[in-house]
Amino acid sequence: MTWSARLAPSLDDFAVLAKQAFDALPDGFRKLSGDVVIRVDDFPSEDVLDSLGIEDAFELTGLYQGVDLGRRSVLDYGTEPSRVFLYRRPILDEWAERGDVSLGDLITHVLVHEIGHHFGLSDDDIHRIEDEE
């Protein structure tokens, strides 16, 4: 395979991969996460990095913003939809650095991790589940 004519995947390419990853998830998982908006950006904003105490934008591959399912109430009418952000450049950097996983699998991993937060799981909960697989 010649790489000389290949370009890095664009934001639109990532969005297609994220949609494919979401569509491949089990039906029950998709139904529970159905109102989550998936967005692809190159990097997190400076405000996001500051709020999380992160100095290097390459350290954050994804982010969940919203009220998780466990804390929602019928009184939450009119709230913003929950969002999952996938950050293209940090994901590409991790993918290139690792070299042991496909880009589609890494995007799926980050997406599922962030949707886990939508379900109310902490990072520790998600890592524990991953370790059990």
TrEMBL record:
Protein name: Metallopeptidase family protein
Lineage summary: Bacteria, Pseudomonadati, Pseudomonadota, Alphaproteobacteria, Caulobacterales
